[in-house]
Amino acid sequence: MKSHKIINDPVYGFITIPSELIFAVIDHPYFQRLRRIKQLGLTDMVYPGALHTRFHHALGAMHLMSITLDQLRTKGIEISEQEYEAALIAILLHDIGHGPFSHALESVLLKGQHHESLSLLFFDNLNEQFHGQLSLARKIFVGSYERKFFHQLVSSQLDIDRLDYLQRDCYFTGVSEGTIGADRIIKMMTIVDDRLVIEEKGIYSIENFLSARRLMYWQVYLHKTTVCAEKMLINLILRAKELVISGSTLAGSTELLQFLSRDLSQEDPSGIPDWLDDFSQLDDYDIWGAIKLWKNDKDLVLREISHMFLTRNLFKIQLVNHPFSAEAISQLKESVQSRLSISEQELRYFFSAGEISNYGYLAEDKILILTKKGEVIDVAMAADLPNIKAMSKIVKKYYACHAKNLTLR
User: Fold this and answer.
1) Are the beta carbons of 289 and 263 closer than 8 angstroms?
2) For residues 116 and 120, what is the distance between their CA atoms, to the nearest angstrom?
3) DSSP 247-268
4) Beta pairing, strands 351-358 & 395-402
5) Is 237 helix (H, G, I), strand (E, B) or coil?
6) Mind listing the pLDDT tens digit for each residue in 106-144?
């Protein structure tokens, strides 16, 4: 019997795997790949402890889901054993479609394929391999199951995913400002008219949760050095793709070279695509392995940016509250091109500009509060929580980053 196997988690202590099917899913190579994908991409360039993986996060989310469902049962919410197991599998597999470095390379290496659509492809493939045993979990994952609160627990503004990653990311980065009271939030959860709601006495825990998430975005997820490192990596992969498509031979793993040579945005897979198994073997190590090989490549861009990563010689970045003028961008480009003595084509890879945005609370996807009078209201309408209304505003910041020097000409 492999069920009831215990895993020691640094955040929660001992986690129990409650069924044979769940153990089999965790043991599958598709899921084991998550051990080789860091949860926070390149954030360890800023916070050295941020080395935890998608595997850690998925197990933690499964653990929190089991605690939540147990708590709901104590409040008289009927949850069958089949629903219980399916909800755990749904949250366990919610991130299985992530590629190398999580979000960072989604727009270039996997262009046209969002990680959520890839997760669904994995779900369908696994469901075939497990002879339909994941069908209910898939319904919960996509929101087609008739009891809608299960999907809210998997994907909403107050889902189990966020409860775990905020706690986990705080722990591994050491950023205490992102601390949330997840235990109390879970204890305050209940179901009214098939909707997930929070009892009124938990309202300040929700305010703290939203504030903490907003702070974590600015201080960790959108930290300017992380943004800068991700732009460097994106530019590196864009250059590699350009070279491979033009016929150049690059060193790299078979799986990486395949995805460098094809444009998934031009493909419309019907059923399970032929490249899914190859993608299931792609992880952070393919990228790092390529970087170590490309540092000696004859191409200036590949050689320089790879060397910059290996020596942590990151681009210099300016982050401001107002958009750069066209004139300012033009002057920056001219200065960088002149100082580095590079062509205009090469400048595209050594200079980047754009915007990042953050919000604390999305009004379209409400967090609902159950008042002591039995009313269900939007948390933003609570009279003494003006901060949440303010957090509904999307805040944008603007960046320009560029190489400080070239060393391997």
Assistant:
1) no
2) 6
3) T------HHHHHHHH--GGG--
4) antiparallel
5) helix
6) 778 877 677 788 899 999 999 999 999 999 999 999 999
